[in-house]
Amino acid sequence: MSRRDTIVAYADERLKDYQQLALDIHAHPEVSNYEFFACEHLSDMLRKEGFDVKTDVAGHRTGFDARYASGKPGPVIVFLAEFDALAGLGHGCGHNLFGATSSLAAACLKQVIDQVGGEVRVYGTPGEEGGENGSAKGSFVREGFLKDVDAALCVHPGAGVHTLTTKTLGCAPVDIEFWGKAAHAASCPENGINALNALLMTYRGIDALRQHCTDDVRIHGIIVNGGTAPNIVPEYAKGKFYLRAATAPMMKKIYEQVEHIVEGAALMTGAKGRMQPYQNIVENTVVTPSFDAVYQKHLEEFGEHVRPIEPQDEMGSSDVGNISQVVPTIQPHITISEQVVPAHSEEFKAAAKSPLGLASIGLGAKVMALTALDLLEDPELLAKIKKEHAEAVKAQ
After folding, report:
1. Tens digit of pLDDT for each residue in 112-161?
2. Which helix (H) or strand (E) holds 197?
3. Is 211 buried (19+), middle (13-18) or exposed (0-12) by CB count in 10 A?
4. What is the pLDDT of residues 172-192, one digit of tens each?
């Protein structure tokens, strides 16, 4: 049996177990830093597949690192696994499928890696949707988990059509806070310093800044604390904002401009202001077309086709961008619904446990494992991909 046939046969043999795992995770939705069920069950599955698994890694108690090294030298290939849910909604982004697909892909590649050499890993990265200690991929990069990695792969559930890896916006999730001085708003307002006024000035300042931003910039936020009672001058106010941009230099510029707005609001009101990230900053995704071309080739072998990227495909953010800044990375979208339904919706949540959604685990695992096999078997192809990726990073 050829290596390709071995991978496809193993995916078919093990598919039902991974489908059940995806359904179990769907039934136990967990948000960032609390994905205990998903972490445990994905880790246990990979241990049964023969991987050496460590949990509580990279500063994330629900993160994991699963590895299998062959007895021969060769490239290190990583499959990225997401498994967090959305607060209040559940698996409306399909990460129950995401983690299962990456794990099955790694298990399939493991069946042939002893023949070709190298190492296969699965990095379980919590909190892609943000939240407490969210966007874990940034931590995996910072803590050195990608230093010896040659390439990273994952597929994200999508709707309506398959697409290849898209550029995404970097995103800095920040808290903006002001501290003033409480006073009775009727009897002695002159003694107060209004923290809410400072936050509202910041909000209006950001609105004014938007008029002078390039099309790739997005800034949006909410007020989460505006005071305690109408008759008390607010001594504390807090907002949460996302600052997004297509490149790291533009992100730096926007970040500094918003900091200046915060400083100005503090000066105008007399309040003390502070802006700081409340989780890892998410970086923009660097696309490596020759890497996606390998994935597309194998996807088409199964009778599937991809839709060309459209502008709206590139306006979101994902911490896969952090990985893509340091190693060649792909994150195509694989359809789980024949109808176009919005992500982060009840319809998408239903698709994440539908027959087509569950079937996507097998298709995605096969295509990713075969893509990774090409990189292991063809040093010239891997070198080409790495060179193209380095040039794309530099071109930013």
Report:
1. 999 999 999 999 999 999 999 999 999 999 999 999 999 999 999 999 99
2. helix 195-210
3. exposed
4. 999 999 999 999 999 999 999
In contact, 284 and 245? CB cutoff 8 Å:
yes
Average the pLDDT over each of 169-183, 270-284, 308-322 and give the range with the smallest value.
308-322
Residue 251's nearest CA partner among 284, 288, 222, 207 is: 284
Q: Residue 167 and residue 5: Cα distance in Å, rounded?
A: 33
Asked if residue 171 lies in contact with residue 384, where contact means CB atoms within 8 angstroms, the answer is: no
CA distance 192 to 182: 5
Positive or negative, the Cα torsion across 293, 136, 121, 106?
negative
Q: Both tokens of residue 377?
A: 């078997």
Sign of CA dihedral 219, 128, 30, 238: negative
Strand partners, 119: 69, 76
**What is the full DSSP assignment across 68-85?**
EE-SS---EEEEEE----
* Global model pTM greater than 0.85: yes
Query: What are phi and psi for residue 243, nearest 5 degrees?
Result: -110, 115
